[in-house]
Design brief:
With 225 residues, the chain is mainly alpha-helical. It has a single domain (3-222), classed as MetI-like fold, CATH 1.10.3720.10. It is 78% helix and 4% strand. It is built from 8 helices and 2 strands. The chain has helices at 3-42, 48-63, 66-76, 92-117, 121-129, 134-164, 176-187, 193-222; strands at 80-83, 86-89. A two-stranded antiparallel sheet has the order 1-2. β1 and β2 (86-89) form a beta hairpin. It is globular and about 75 Å long.
Length: 225
């Protein structure tokens, strides 16, 4: 059996592993975005404690190694949680999502802070003239304008996250890289190394390249003139 035929045999399983990578990246991006927006707004708060805490958390998780954060979550989080008298498993893939969401949170926080600060101060002054509170100004006037400028770096952050998602294989998640290792172990053919990992490389390129292309278009469209 040729390498191409072997690869075709294992292709459904490899695609299933890649789909898990996509799901994990989307869930981590969602969680990281929700928490990162709060941190980003907190960095601009008038409350000194909230501002300093938000800045500290943002810089810590932005600059922490992703793999270290993953191991931290795997080792720190429990293997099961108790709800009443019932023990529910806490799977490795969920820990992986949390571990990847932490650095995403830090990066999204900076995206939000930068997007808000890119809006001219005249917008704040005009809102004050309309007797809007700071929170109303942020919600009604500033954020709707800032979202367009936040979108390209947010998409770039997602592309980086997607390319980093295979790190979860190191902590035991059955993603595309883990499946690829299992395929190579089952076939015991060193010649399959390049075809199998080349196929994964092609999948990631096909998925991430359009995101990068769209990001460049949005940057050109929404960048401040």
């Amino acid at each position: 059996m040729s390498h191409l035929e072997i690869l075709e045999k294992w292709m459904p399983l490899l695609l299933q592993g890649f789909l898990l990578d996509v799901v994990i990246s989307m869930m981590a991006m969602l969680l990281g975005t929700l928490t990162g927006v709060g941190l980003g707004v907190g960095q601009l708060s008038n409350n000194a404690f909230l501002k300093r805490t938000s800045i500290l958390l943002t810089q810590f998780f932005r600059n922490a190694p992703w793999l270290v954060l993953l191991f931290f979550c795997i080792l720190l989080l429990p293997y099961q949680v108790f709800v009443g008298n019932h023990a529910l498993p806490f799977p490795a893939w969920l820990k992986g999502i949390i571990g990847l969401a932490l650095p995403v949170m830090g990066n999204v926080s900076e995206v939000v802070r930068g997007g808000i600060q890119s809006i001219p101060s005249a917008q704040w002054e005009a809102a004050q003239g309309l007797a809007l509170s700071r929170s109303q100004t942020l919600r009604i006037v500033i954020l709707p304008q800032a979202v367009k400028r936040m979108l390209p770096p947010w998409m770039n952050a997602y592309a980086v996250l997607m390319m980093a998602t295979p790190l979860v294989s190191i902590v035991g998640v059955e993603d595309s890289v883990m499946v690829a290792r299992s395929v190579l172990a089952a076939e015991r053919d060193p010649g399959l190394l390049m075809p199998v990992y080349g196929f994964l490389l092609a999948l990631f390129f096909i998925y991430c390249a359009p995101i990068a292309r769209l990001t460049r278009k949005l940057e050109a469209r929404f960048s401040p003139q």
